[in-house]
Specification:
The chain is mainly β. The protein contains 3 helices and 19 strands.
Amino acid sequence: MPVITNTLESHQYILIKDDLLFKDNINNIYLRVNEVFPGTDSLYSAYYDYLTKDGHYFSLKDIIDIDSFHQIDNTQYFKDKRAVYAYQQFPPRFDPITIIEINPEKFELLPDNYIKDDKNVYWLTKKLDADAKQFHVIKFGNMMLGVDNNHLFWSQGDIMEYKDFEPLKNILNATKFEKLKQQYFPEEN
């Protein structure tokens, strides 16, 4: 059974890697992540001794390579020589720590929690139906959109529908808006 705990008693747990990984007296490994209490700016640390892959639970001690394990550029992604892992606190329908199908030698970290390699694109733990070779992130003011040749992706990696795109008319210049509309929503022309 996975363990989630908000505190670890310092006399029972030993720091083993970069203020991220801890070990208890029976050799379980815990990953410490900082979380925000919902609706506040208050941080607390949570410790996880498990991760998931394809809906199955695995003990951290059985999966990760401690020596090469590290956080990627202060993001919600972690990596070791075997895999890339994503941490996602919200929405709650996702397991917090997941192995994602990204080649750890070929991945590219993109803005707004997107990550890709030559075959797959993810927004945190969510695999997208996107062309990895064409996928990139564009910024409009404070908003970022993932794009490939077929879709615009927004909020949590969801494919944008025209009803969501249309209000961007007020943000984008007319030329950019029309160009994107023709490419991604030609039926609306």
